[in-house]
C-alpha cells in the first residue's frame, strides 16, 4: 500500500481542503469579531431614561430628536414642541421613515403618555432594527422620557397645541 502523505504528514488531497478549512475559519473568525464589535457598539445604544428636567435643557440641541409614539392623544392633548409623531400602532412599518427623518441626529428620546408601555416598546423595536441593520445610521443614544408626556405636562413644562405634523417648533408658543 502506497502512502499518499506528503512531507509534513498531510495528504496531497487533504492539504488544499485543510487550507480551505483554515481560510473558512479565519473568515468565520473575522465575522464573529465584527458581530462582537457591533454588539459592543449596540450596548452603547441600549435604552436609558431621561428626566423631564434633563430633556428640557437638552431638547433644542440639533443632535436630539423627540419621538412621540402616542396614537390619537397627541391631537387632543398637545405635544412637546418640535417632536416627531410616529404612532405606536404603526411604528414598526415606519422605522425606516423615522431613520430617514432623523438623519444627523445621534440621540432619540421616545415617549408616550406615561412612558411605561408604548414608548419603551417602540424604543426597543428601534434598537432591534438597528441591531439587525448592516448600516450605521449614526444613532448612538436611545432614551425614554421618564413619566412620559403626562409627567412632562403635569410638571408645568411647555406644551404645544398646534395641529401641525410634524410640529413646526418655531410656530409653537412653548
TrEMBL record:
<dbReference type="GO" id="GO:0008794">
    <property type="term" value="F:arsenate reductase (glutaredoxin) activity"/>
</dbReference>
<feature type="region of interest" description="Disordered">
    <location>
        <begin position="1"/>
        <end position="44"/>
    </location>
</feature>
<feature type="compositionally biased region" description="Basic and acidic residues">
    <location>
        <begin position="19"/>
        <end position="35"/>
    </location>
</feature>
<protein>
    <recommendedName>
        <fullName>arsenate reductase (glutathione/glutaredoxin)</fullName>
        <ecNumber>1.20.4.1</ecNumber>
    </recommendedName>
</protein>
<feature type="domain" description="Rhodanese">
    <location>
        <begin position="60"/>
        <end position="161"/>
    </location>
</feature>
<keyword id="KW-0560">Oxidoreductase</keyword>
<dbReference type="InterPro" id="IPR036873">
    <property type="entry name" value="Rhodanese-like_dom_sf"/>
</dbReference>
<dbReference type="Pfam" id="PF00581">
    <property type="entry name" value="Rhodanese"/>
</dbReference>
<dbReference type="InterPro" id="IPR001763">
    <property type="entry name" value="Rhodanese-like_dom"/>
</dbReference>
<dbReference type="GO" id="GO:0005737">
    <property type="term" value="C:cytoplasm"/>
</dbReference>
<dbReference type="GO" id="GO:0004725">
    <property type="term" value="F:protein tyrosine phosphatase activity"/>
</dbReference>
<dbReference type="GO" id="GO:0005634">
    <property type="term" value="C:nucleus"/>
</dbReference>
Amino acid at each position: 500500500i502506497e502512502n499518499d502523505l506528503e512531507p509534513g504528514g498531510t495528504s496531497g488531497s487533504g492539504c488544499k481542503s485543510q487550507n480551505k478549512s483554515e481560510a473558512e475559519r479565519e473568515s468565520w473568525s473575522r465575522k464573529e469579531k465584527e458581530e462582537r464589535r457591533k454588539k459592543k457598539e449596540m450596548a452603547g445604544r441600549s435604552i436609558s431614561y431621561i428626566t423631564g428636567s434633563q430633556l428640557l435643557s437638552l431638547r433644542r440641541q440639533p443632535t436630539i430628536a423627540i419621538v412621540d409614539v402616542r396614537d390619537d392623544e397627541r391631537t387632543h392633548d398637545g405635544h412637546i414642541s418640535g417632536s416627531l409623531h410616529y404612532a405606536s400602532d404603526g411604528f414598526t412599518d415606519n422605522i425606516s421613515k423615522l431613520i430617514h427623518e432623523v438623519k444627523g441626529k445621534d440621540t432619540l428620546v421616545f415617549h408616550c403618555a406615561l412612558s411605561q408601555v408604548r414608548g419603551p416598546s417602540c424604543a426597543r423595536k428601534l434598537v432591534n432594527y438597528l441591531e439587525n441593520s448592516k448600516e450605521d445610521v449614526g444613532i448612538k443614544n436611545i432614551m425614554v422620557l421618564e413619566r412620559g408626556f403626562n409627567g412632562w405636562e403635569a410638571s408645568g413644562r411647555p406644551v404645544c397645541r398646534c395641529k401641525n405634523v410634524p410640529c413646526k417648533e418655531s410656530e409653537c408658543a412653548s
